[in-house]
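User: Structure please.
Assistant: Input sequence and predicted structure:
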Amino acid sequence: MYGIGRFLSMITNLMTVIGGLAIALMMLHITLDVASRYILNSPIPGTISIVSYYYMVIAVFIPLAFAEQKNAHISVEVVTTRLPMWMQRHLERLSFLLSATVFSLLTVRTWEEAEKKRTYGASVIQGNDAIPIWITYYVLPVGCGLMTLVVIYKLVNSCLGTRSGLDASAAQVDDLDADDEMEKQ
């Protein structure tokens, strides 16, 4: 089980890097579009469509499982922290099961939609150009599918009580470095 978790972490981290690259490319593309619009009086054609249908979709759905891996999704624990530990574990497993069900249904449904868009050759007309967008419909089932795998892994791992191979450590600022920075100011 530990090896499966390490493999899922590796894939999730890779997908997050792809999401980060999409954000960096989006910033570069928009900056070049604005600069060419005001300096050369000629904007880059298709910028709005490419940003909307490519960069944003990749930036949102591809790293979805990363937040689950790091336990970074929003949770409210006002009531559950007061419950006995055995009940907290059962509620956590129930939430994993519900999440796995919902995300697996989303994976299947978005895959069907992606196939439909591919069959039709979905595209957006901007200016005189047709920008194909059917490709980006496959990003949703990839992101939701990876999220499903991570949640199922966490569910099985929780039920078996084995050591998790997922990298759940969050990026943290070293407290000593933060204190040094405060003193310099």
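The chain has one domain: 2-72+84-169.
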